[in-house]
Amino acid sequence: MQSGDNAAGGGNGGNLTLVSHYVKEQSFKNEGGPAGLAFKRQVDLGCDLVTRRADDGHHEVEIKLRANSREGGASGFVLELTYAGLFRLQNIPADAVQSALLVDAPTALFPHLRDIAADTIQKGGLPPLNLDTFDFAALYRADTGKEPARNIAVASAITAQPALQPEIHKLFPTSIYGAPLGVSLHAELEAACLKLAAEDEAGRAWSRDGLRGGYTSYASIYDLPSRAPVFAALVENLGRHIAAFARAVEFDMQGRRFVLDSIWVNVLQEAGSHPAHIHPHSAISGTYYVSVPPGGAALYFEDPRTGLMMSAPPRAKTARPENRDVVAMRPKAGNLFLWESWLRHGVEPHGGKSPRISISFNYKVEGTVKNALA
Ligand SMILES: [Fe+2]
Hints:
Bacterial Protein-export protein SecB, Jelly Rolls, 2 domains, nine-stranded antiparallel beta sheet, five-stranded antiparallel beta sheet, 14 strands, elongated, binds fe (ii) ion
């Protein structure tokens, strides 16, 4: 039961107040079973109004709805629903009480009845019934020349339109794999990465020209796993994640396997960033996060179809991630992200005081041309 002093009208002077409203009786049969899903929505509706005095100043008004769907001679569903409201009448002239109870009161109750009818039918496995509002005033006027009847029958059959319930097919997904590496290497890796950054003069020189605020071994060191055992241990643990990602996106490897093509260290200083880019000549790319201090820069991905969007409107700021054209992800130390190498991505400006350290890599299908690092 719902309650509240909701004004329900009283167009003839005085006040008609809805004190509470509730389902009084309900039954539902899905006689068509699963076949009812396909029925043509010919729905016969009947509606009776019943009023009774509850006490001085209060009346109960019931809407008795009967909805029966059918297709040809076959029945789909039968819904019988009595929805009632308790109304308080104040200062309503005696000659206006009947219209208040047979027009204003059911008009106030009807939206609640409609919601319950739609919900019940939908829970019965059928598209919800989207009832048009009954015109109780017209029904009252039609009953002319005599005292308005306490029961009004809606005799005519009404064809109700099914509520729109489209099925959205999500095709061509862009998969981002995220997982903890599974072994705790990041403390040892942090020391190894910082040592490398301190010793790699060629890398620091390249980074000054080619990177915004930090260091990368991308263009200077091609044998990272042999530089320290911990780098080799990282690579050893990447393999099962690469295989899991390949299974998740259902690559048909035809007997071939993924092999590491390149791997490099990134040390991003405060305000440093990586502009959006792709990783050509490889199939799966990824990053393992060694250190991500508070304020650590997010990794962002761009919708690979952006160039095809023609005159599509922009996405809502509140859009779900799968519908956005740019999605930022905030990594944690010890976590791994993988994606297909054609996916354009970048790193937002780093907001941390201490460096954000990561190790990125490319995998290619065994036997394909080795990537020539630029
Ligand atoms: Fe990258």
